[in-house]
Amino acid sequence: MEDMEQARSLLAKQRYREAADLLDRLLPRDSDNDELWYLRGMVSLKLKNYDAAQECFERALLLGKKSRYYQIKGMAHFEVFEMEEAAEAFLNALALEPNDATSNFFLAMCYLFLDDPRSDAHIKRAHEINSKKTKQLLLNFYTLFLKDDPRTSVAQRNAIEAQIKSLKG
């Protein structure tokens, strides 16, 4: 579908409003297309409209159960610190694709926030599956959540950065 490729292209170019307009024109005539709902959810997520994003991901999942739909649903919950809902979505993604490093990583992060000891097993699993990707995800996580946190001392930051850099991958 040429229009869907155009929507993907607009999304990749960060032209979210244009992508939203295009998808909003496509959905009424092709409302049973799970991929269109997924893309519309992605656009809503990028525009930080979390409720709309979740509705679109739910619609996509009703039409087609795909690991990446659960994964992005989990990421949308994670972004607003809904850790239990995020963990559930990542577990659903892993039920379909158990060897996905990204879902294992984010499930580990959810469990970390929930103070659940299963975090260790999932971070190790992510690293076993794809050490390079897991190292990059850890670095991104650190940069977003810890690096500029005033509760983290310079010594702690240096130690964390050294640990991440020393990881294989």
Kindly describe this structure:
There is one protein chain. By secondary structure, the chain is mainly α. Helix content is 76%, strand content 0%. It has 10 helices and no strands. Helix 4 runs antiparallel to helix 5 and helix 9 (131-145) packs antiparallel against helix 10. It is globular and about 55 Å long. The termini are far apart. The mean pLDDT is 92.
Helical fraction: over 70%
**Rg from alpha-carbon coordinates:** 18 Å
The run of helices and strands is: HHHHHHHHHH
- Rounded to the nearest angstrom, the distance between the terminal CA atoms is 38 Å
Structural class: mainly alpha
Q: Tell me, what's the shape? A: globular
Stretches where pLDDT falls below 50 for ≥5 residues?
none
Number of strands: 0
What is the helix tally? Answer: 10
- Average pLDDT number: 92
Largest sheet: none
Notable characteristics:
169 residues; mainly alpha; 10 helices; 76% helix
Compact overview of the structure:
It is built from ten helices and no strands. The chain has helices at about 1-10, 15-25, 35-45, 50-65, 65-80, 85-95, 100-115, 120-130, 130-145, 155-165.
Itemize the secondary structure elements and their pairings.
Layout: H1 2-12, H2 16-26, H3 34-46, H4 50-63, H5 67-79, H6 83-96, H7 101-113, H8 119-129, H9 131-145, H10 154-166
